Amino acid sequence: MNPTRDVVQLTMELVDVASVSGDERILADAVEICLQTCAWLEVSRLGNTVIARTNLGRASRVIVAGHLDTVPAAGNESATLIQAGQPLPHDGSLAEEDLVFGLGACDMKGGVAVALRAAVSLENPQFDVTYIFYECEEVDSARNGLTILAARHPELLAADVAVLLEPSNAQIEAGCQGTLRAHIRTKGVRSHSARSWLGDNAIHHLGEVLRRLNDYEPVRVVIDGLEYREGLNAVGISGGIAGNVLPDEAMVEVNYRYAPSTSAEQAATHMAEVFEGFEVVVVDNAGGALPGLTQDALAELVRLVDGQVAPKFGWTDVARFAAMGIPAVNLGPGDPGLAHSRGEFVTCAQLRKCEATMFTWLAG
Amino acid sequence: MNPTRDVVQLTMELVDVASVSGDERILADAVEICLQTCAWLEVSRLGNTVIARTNLGRASRVIVAGHLDTVPAAGNESATLIQAGQPLPHDGSLAEEDLVFGLGACDMKGGVAVALRAAVSLENPQFDVTYIFYECEEVDSARNGLTILAARHPELLAADVAVLLEPSNAQIEAGCQGTLRAHIRTKGVRSHSARSWLGDNAIHHLGEVLRRLNDYEPVRVVIDGLEYREGLNAVGISGGIAGNVLPDEAMVEVNYRYAPSTSAEQAATHMAEVFEGFEVVVVDNAGGALPGLTQDALAELVRLVDGQVAPKFGWTDVARFAAMGIPAVNLGPGDPGLAHSRGEFVTCAQLRKCEATMFTWLAG
Asked: In Å, how far from its chain's centre is CA A117?
């Protein structure tokens, strides 16, 4: 892997190293090797999270961060450079401009490429910079590399502001929504399916859970002029013992995405109300972050993107920095609507635009 | 294992040897060893199916058969002898009479105990007898020991009548219902759950499948004075990719139990109608068997149970014998309504009654 040449080529190289959550070791090794070549960086590692810091005695310090992991593959494991007018691999539609197609291209190896190139290129930035390349962002927050870093080495997270290179169309996306996952469980009575009238089918009871999900109308909330948009979805469903048995247990896993003005506690209460009558077990709950753009520290960055700021729908680690008192925004290449889709890609133009913005901001 | 002492004790010994479908080897070994001690039996084995035949030159030959496997355990792996008035382990209710509690006690290690005791006790039966102890009855019919035996050694299945010792309250249960399993699949569009409006949730589409299952009204069909009772149930449900992804595929596995007057083809057509608009893939379909009690060959057995005959709801290998032209009935200890339940048991009285009926019939 050679991060010194070109951001498009580096994005493709990063996509081609598989790094589904929990399996980031090989990619973390490759990133660490690149960073170790730079005399101006102090490199440390915790699990599959790699941290590289400048120590130039600057008046302020900024964090530039991105996660190394991706969701599971969907036939899109290999990076492909698609030129404008050529068909996309997953559905044959024609590319409107040059782009990199493949798992993680959008979420967020394009952003990792920009951060890695900044780290190895900018020997003399205007701020001290802490670059963080971390593991397990796409799974339980307990496994998240930043969670582990905050618990084990909080001193490495000290900073005045943070920029996360999560996909945001190379513009600033401010704040982020909260995310809660819960298991909605049904009970029944096990019996042989040949005499089903003697049992009570727990899977059939899931019908009411799915009815409520289908009837649910998510709200939209405007904060500081930015419209946040909630969502409530099943992300998993399971049940069954054998092909001739009525099961006595079944479960739907739901994911509730809630506006930053709703607290984690309020979100949990809301789920208990929506699924009243069922067992509701919250398995993961991370509150959002308010937009927080009023701080001076981010003013220069806002100017560099011509004041274009949008609300962030996905939960990102911006919330974690906000909770630590560090103003943070998302600014990364890629359309966030493509994240986790089979057709995930990032345009070459956004890679270059984001790189230019970040380099200009960091170089000063 | 000592089959010569007592049917209750033997049932407990059989329960204590785990034999979930696919893992019958240890139990088949034990059964084979018992049979090999009897000079009047010609023993053969195919996989984990054990066959023992007398060759006495009798005018007719009967098959006495039972399956060795059980459904998966549910905290009821060990056999327990419960005396009348004592509490049952799974729910504390009081036993009305002496019984053996445990996985497979009802379906059908009690029946296997009766057959095994007959095999090792009756040196000189009035018919030639083919005892069959077979594997994988509780799973796909392609894995069923009788399927494999019919394909590889059909000569071992030649007989005038057959008795299956499936649980039937130690009375004759005639005919059997058909059973069909199908996967009902939904499709959607994968997306990040933070922007769910960009996707289409395949799990949510299962709501309509479950609605149809909940609304379905199974019919009852009277044949030869016996009332058969159909059923349509989900026996499995699955879907989900990751905790923050709307899945593009989800599935319900259904099990349709249909009256013996309905053909396997008609059953498949009915499922396509019930789940019209969804992808329906039939994965297992075994037609039923009409009661077939008009044959003289079974008259003596019917007389021995005082003419008490009930319809069989569960699919049993009676259908397989019926399809081969061999009149067959179920006659075994245990309440079929307890089969596959956590509270599975067989009463000592039924074990002894069934043993008496079978010994009287076979001995002549």
From this structure: 20
